[in-house]
Structures
1.
Amino acid sequence: MPGPVDKTLDLELAAITDESRKLAAAIKPASGPWDVIVVGSGASGGMAAFQLATAGVKVLMLEAGRMLDHKAEYRTMEWPYASTRRGRLPGDQRAIQAAEYNFYDRPYGNNPEFAKYKKLSSYTANTFTRNWTVNEKEHPTTGTPYAWVRARVLGGKTNYWGRVAIRYGPLQFKAASRDGFDIDWPIGYEDVSPYYDKVDTLLGCSGTKEGLIQVPDGIYQRPMKMNCVETHFKKTIAKMGRSYIPGRCGVSTEGQLNNKYRSRCLGRGRCSRGCDVNANFHSPAALVYPARDTGNLTIRPYSVVSEVFLDEATGKAGGVRVIDANTKEVMDFKARVVVLGAGTLDSTRILLNSKSPKHPNGLGNSSGLMGCYLSEHHMGPRGSGFIPMRVGTEPTLDDGRPTAPYIPRFRNVTDKHPDFIRGYHFQGGGGSYEYPSLAHDMPGFGKALKSNIRKYYPAMLSIGGFGEVLPRKENRVLLDPEVKDAWGIPVLRFDFKFRDNEITMARDMADTADEMLRAAGAENIKIDPTMLPEGWSIHEIGTARMGEDPKASVTHKFCGLHDVPNVFFADAAPFVSGGTQNTTWSILAFCWRTMDYVKEQMRTGVV
Amino acid sequence: MSGPLVTRRNALKALGATAGAATILPWLSDEGLAAFADVQKAGTAPVLRVLTPAQYVTVERLVEAIIPTDERSPGARDARVADYMDLLLAEADEGLRKDWLAGLAALDAESTRRFGRSFAKLDAAQTDALLTDISAYETRKVVADAALDVPRNEQPKPQPPQVDTLLGDIGRHKGSRKSQLETFFANTKQATIHGYYTSEIGIHKELRYKGNKVLLEFVGCLTVDGKDCPYCGQKAEA
């Protein structure tokens, strides 16, 4: 009589790693030619490759990790009891915890406390994502504490992203005009909104039109309804002039007729493990595979890009230098255009490492600003409580949906807060989720404990904040002069910290969470005002900011380098300021816009 | 069910794993894997890695006292939480394991001091009295460690992290405000909660969780038959 299969132990990656090695071995610099090299295969690299390949451009995509076997690797419907460790990591692996980021010296992987682990991952590693996150021991960082989350595998972090799909709006693009801090973007919402529309249509986005300036409306598929505790909370905070709207998420709730790899959302929840029917946007199914089907896309896995090299004759970029992740063989791949989609920080690192006599501080860095103005979102302050109307009722099914509701920014929208500029939003909802996390805070033992957990289980509501981090020149990354990664590439040294505006804003987040939960009549309100470490949001932007003036910015308004005409960012490095919005949907829209520009430059022979 | 020769190969077979899986299992010893394969078969005797049979009985009594069988569902004993505890202990740091086992011994010592018998032999009222005392800290107002309650961003220096729970979490308060027995109880309780509510009994019988299945449309708070919500009054769509 066999027991239940433990899929955690059963997971077999040999086939996909073998296939990846074979693919890598088969693709050499002479295998081309290619028109464009795209570095990375996540949201940005995927969108870049899709736009170019479907337009007939020959693309070489370089992914630092392996290919993905999503059918085997996405354990979407696995029950916790299918695993020996009930979701905990295997004993030789460890995820860095919040308190450790700030306390332990960098590189984190060097700490003697972690010597006994074979793999040390960022905080996001769990039993479902552990094969995608990078090993900090191979990918060190130095400088100030920073929870830098990286995934090296086809699709990158889109394999387990948070799905929140919110547009930037006029409040971000003209933020400086509103409060006098820093500068406006060189473009406005009207420049990008058509591209957000296209992204919504191509990829599918669930949400509702609300007419709010802080979160402009998109083109939406079926939205997620609210449950009792959320409906009650919505009514409550409406009286305070605040909105609580169905979450907007990059999930196709009605299906995508344009993509044979994707299905509509089946309402099972568990999206962050990877969605095995691909209703959730993830780059491979939504963009990379369709691009490959055109015959115009070559994907080379295990390709670690160390630098963009210069063509001395033309002064343009000639291509990229690749170190094979397994064989360590060094190869130069050439193309007319280089598109960087390695993620804001890794794309920046590649260019900082692209030094030549003409570009001694890195390619495209004549301004000296490459790496500066790093920004993201600060997180941490959160609140929870029990909404009385559902205390003691039978549990409903509340996690069979891809997202929870959203409280759009309400500070400094129409009013002016006396203590800080910019603002924050909350994400979060309530009801019965598979795991009753409230149990850990419930006092007592025995029948009373058990029945109290059951009694309050349907009534929980919790929200957590995401706040704007002001873009500051002094918040930056640079190359570490000594420490190198496992492939000999200099690593990033962070010089980044939250400052007064963020800390003051975080205090206000905790206060307003408390205020709203009190207004909703919640019982047993718990407020945690603690900020999470820098980097936690995984929304890094700004290290190659766009602008009109080449002395005050790194890229022009189409995300290309001022200094070199044929190098472009597909990711969020050119973003000037990040508002409170989760970044992925903007990366996709901006990338599409940039690729339209690249195609035009290629057509007219500029590059 | 388990034969005298529980090999790695047999264990993998019992788990339905392919032989290739062995190469990705360096972190679990043969005994550990065999133990869990065995535990997965309902009703089989535990194969213990850390706990002695006597300790196992004590742990079973303790976890069942924390989450007991009641009129709605079976408790932590039937959910094999004691086996899960043994697995956690097997994979915990040595220091943590020693501390926890010392806590278990202290529980028996306290039980003997007060009632003249070991914890496993206490009757319901005695168990209740003992656990009431060692869990009283949960509702106690603590002033001494108030400095640790200052948010991280407002502390002059970050607090040193310290893994002090079997679940591998870092306790923000480092357990310093608790006695040995209180720390032991807190740790055991959290692990019991995790083990129980991730078990089939906890998820399906106790919580009656309805998800992890195809749901074509999220119904929000509305009842499935489309009537207005009886709790919050949200209107059913026409």
2.
Amino acid sequence: MTDKIDIKEKVLSENDRMAESLRQRFAGKTLCLNLVSSPGSGKTSLLEKTIPALEKELKMALVAGDVQTENDANRLIAAGGKAVRPIVTKGACHLDARMVETALDGLPVENADVLFIENVGNLVCPSSYDLGEDAKVVIISVTEGDDKPLKYPGMFRRSSLMIINKIDLLAHCEFDMAKVRQNALQINGNLDIFETSCRTGQGLDHWYNWLRQKSASKKKGQS
Amino acid sequence: MHELAIAQSIVQSVEREKARRGLGKISAVGVRIGELTDLMPEALDFGFQALIAEGDLAGCILKIDRVPVAGTCNTCHQSLTVQNLVFSCPHCYSTDLDIQSGQELEIAYLECDDGDAPLPG
């Protein structure tokens, strides 16, 4: 005899529970952003620019995930980051909520206006793991293909903002700006899109204003 | 590429349910995987089989049910299935959609052998 037993349980329910407890911890105060991209699109560079630009306005905490090395966390500290924690995943291709909770141990994150979680460079696996964030920010660069949103729809569908970085290199790349926007909006019509160059600083004001607005909304309980 | 980690979570959940409900041998695990989860069924099955090879669950089959991306159009209110990742209504071309499925990643059911099946005939 074979019995069929209904379970209907989320595979990542354990992770989701932990993410929800992180979300409670950040409620009404700390805007939590999960930064995702391919390796080398500019997550760390974006944060290196953001830290000095906004340090007088926003208290920032940062968690930097990497498969090996604490290089990214060290770069964020060198850029002036005061509350920085590395996560070395030792091979795992994504961060999960438990890793973030462990990394935040002893970090007074409740006092921060913004917590940036720099995920492992990967557009597939991190999309399944809720880290308690208010929003995912996906970064791509013009040295990549303009069909990235179509290749990794799960990630672009779940993101709130897409940053197209390295636009100072646009003249040297076969990257169609109109097409990448069209591809991204086909997957997610609600996506905000900014074009930036972390190298020249071009377009970063849009990102800073977005952060200011999201942080203000969070404190008003609107996000 | 994270299929092994997902398979690990499935195995842990199944072992937990097995213990909690005092179940006998589990012959199959049914999972529902949405098309938007970027999971490859073959890799998930491979990871699952590798993890259970020598334990209590050895021999258990993973039955994967793929869930299409589907929902309702907020403009013309007709139901729709998203084809080829075009998130616009096939009826009125609106992009204002309420997507209700496609992100699933859940254990739907377990199939258990109670071990005392009556002999046929």
